[in-house]
Fold Aminotransferase class V-fold PLP-dependent enzyme.
Amino acid sequence: MPGFELFSDLERNEVNDVLDNGVLMRYGFDGMRKGHWKAKELEAELATTFESNHVQLVSSGTAAVSVALASAGIGAGDEVIMPTFTFVASFEAIMMLGAIPVLVDIDDTLTLDPKAVEAAITPKTKAVMIVQMCGSMGNMDALSKICNNHNLVFIEDACQAIGGTYKGKPLGSIADLGCFSFDFVKTITCGEGGAVVTNNKAYYINADHFSDHGHDHVGNDRGAETHPFLGYNFRISELHAAVGLAQVRRLPEFINIQKRNFTILRNAIADVPGVTFRTVPEGGEESYAFLNFFMPNLELAQKVSEAFKTNGVDACWNYYHNNWHYIRKWNHLKDLKSLYPISSEVKEGLEYLQTKSFDQSDFYISRNISCLIKLSWTEEEVRARGSKMAQLIKAIN
Ligand SMILES: *Cc1c(COP(=O)(O)O)cnc(C)c1O
């Protein structure tokens, strides 16, 4: 991660193919496009890659989460359970639909603690959204069971875990609906883009219509389309899809490089006193997009983070003080800073954020260091990096 590090003639050729043909829109212009359907081709490739019956491409990962929720009928006043550690997109998508994000603690997998999920269920709960953070996953069996028992929609945000698996199944394909991002920094990039994947045909048809103004996509050349329901424009363009098409074909190559680089770094620091690793659930295989490890406490984690920064070990973060990914600094959410009025139901639903503490999440995130695994490193560079990391951590202990 990210896939842009290895751009090649494969991406350039796909983009040039679209430009030579001249149709940049994914729907319509049937005669003019002379058989060029990059978005449709990419959807078919992704269906194979993610072993899912249906794939709907959209304009971003945030759009994918919004479309997934809407496709499952989630909206005004519904509660959606989500983790405290994620990207801001998770609660943005929920709130766009007038629903209420219910944030709960993570465990040592760095995503939803099944016990915390169970404890947060109320009569208003409609869905549970897991976020497979930093290339790994939560306990999918336990969470699926909770969702089945309580008749909740299970949504999987796999934006950061493209290529990971759980019990042999691709992450993103396990829950009722999976969401992917292909933004500029993800493992596969389209520049901007995203996808909703599902085996549920009704959800897929909803996603197909909703992401294109509610158009039903019946017939050729858009002439006779009707609108079974309201929608928006979350479309991807043919240019973006073309980049993604070249990239998805290279996913096995990307994952192999990530795994090699991850393994070298993990082995380099595994025996350093004080270092422990996140738990990967039994049967899980990471995408190796990030190496996450814990230090014994916040102070030591911060010292490691500083030492890495001042000694050229870049792209490592302690998320405790980060305002994109962790609840502590999401003041714009806590204070409901909105450009437009928010319903009183959502306001009341979010009052808990003023007082609730998330000690268990703090326990894990304060001690965690997350290092991005780059694709462009040579093996030599990774080995040197690993030794340096080990040396710096030892010096702190
Ligand atoms: C990147 C990301 C998103 C949002 O994707 P965009 O394409 O940038 O909108 C959502 N969730 C997670 C976990 C992400 O990492």
Summary: The longest strand covers residues 125-131. Residues 60-62, 86-87, 89, 131, 157, 159-160, 181, 183, 194 surround pyridoxal-5'-phosphate (CB under 6 Å).
